[in-house]
Design brief:
529 residues; Proton glutamate symport protein; globular; 7% strand; 21 helices; 2 domains; single chain
Amino acid sequence: MDNVNEKFKLTADACFEAAKLIADFCSEMKLDKKDATRYRLAAEDCLAHWLDSGLAGNALTVRMGKRFRTPFISLEAEGPQDDPGAADDEDFGPYCNSVLVSMGLEPEYSYERGRNRVLFRLRRKPLNQLVTLAIVLVSALAVGFAGMLLPGDMREGLLTGIVQPLYSTFFDLLRCIAGPMIFLSVAWGIYGIGDVETLGRIGKRLMLRFLRFTGLVVLCASPLFCVLGPGLSESSGGNNQLASITEMVLGIVPPNIVEPFLSGNTLQIIFLAVAASLGLLYLGKRVSGVAEGIDQVNALVGFLMAAVSKIVPFAIFLVVVNMIWSGTLQSLGGVWKLIVIGFVALAVAATVFLATTAVRRKVGIGVLVKKCLPSFTIALTTASSIAAFESNTQTCEKKFGIESGLTGFGLPLGMVMHRPICATNFLLVTFFFAGEYGVACDPVWVAMAVFVACVLAIAAPPVPGGSAVVFTMLFAQMGIPAEALALALAVDVVADFYVTAFEQVCMLNTLVNVSSELDMIDADTLRAA
């Protein structure tokens, strides 16, 4: 479809015509039917808001098309500034909107030259990740083994002159973007809470609960190092061990602002992000310009990361070809053990969450399982927490009886910060590849891996390519070679399905417990079969 640029006068009939154009455009783009319906309804709500708020009769422009191969819908109405998405008297509106915007679930509003503009960036239905991975692996194996028929000198020339430089450049590109993206994700996530009052009243309780559970689950999973890791190397004496731990803790504080980004020190980058975001939160309107700048840079870096993530399959292809030609293909042999152990460990963690909630809230575990099942199924089949968002909302409000205010705040916050399952998966992957590549591991290394996996899981950007950012920073911090990154991303494609599914179950149960403590849940609705 060619770009659409239709002009109307803002009337009820114009709203109907605009909605029809949007429906036709979504159909032409072959979007998921549910997504197409959401975009159309959201656009109708926006137009209806402007119609009722005094902009009736003003010029209205509807633009639709593609930019950088991404479909978009833009609504522009002349008149005084009027943001349809602004929260009126909703306690949790500002934070909810900021998080959902970063995930691509909400439109972007701007006001320029007397025009209100609402922009929707449409998500096209992607090719199934498992299908993509299968195509990549089959292609890499075919090219790799076919290349073994070439003369040794020619194959070595291709390896050192093309294959290795290409995937090394890809890893450099990831490292270049990873540091700023982690900083912006953490800074904007905390600042997005909205104000100090919300942070102290509910946000602090939720965040502390999310952080505590993440740390506890990952700590319980750390003994799996004995199964997946390379084994502990000889550790130095007690005094040196104490000095190493002290250095690890105090090393979080950077010597200057620039050094953490140059060296890729994950913990120092997150320290700077937390300090900056708390400062922005407490200073409020006095630094609104700085906050707006961070938001814009965050959008830019997110766009770049989404573009880079599209070439991840190509990087996996190059790494597998490199492994075949260099004779190291056996590194893939133990991946099945990582996936099986990871699945079992995460299933146990989710079961413990369910059982604990059932005992504490005096509700049958079968009832909890049945109520969580729709969200679990959606996440398991799509590997997307965004796809499960609507189901999570319905489960919290209608099946659990959690007040809509807490749901509207807690779910988006949980999608960003509730990461016990993701953090555990990151830790297990780190253990496995440390063993595969012979990384020397002492008790301090294991403690650092536990800590960094927790922090990075919470700091992971909720955008396409977020896992690539995490593994880039995690492996650099733990001394795992860069060539392990592509294999880790290939494993993550498979693991992402069950990791996302178990994460939804755990998050829903955490929200049940927090809402009960805040007396923001209907216990009868929760216990009803």
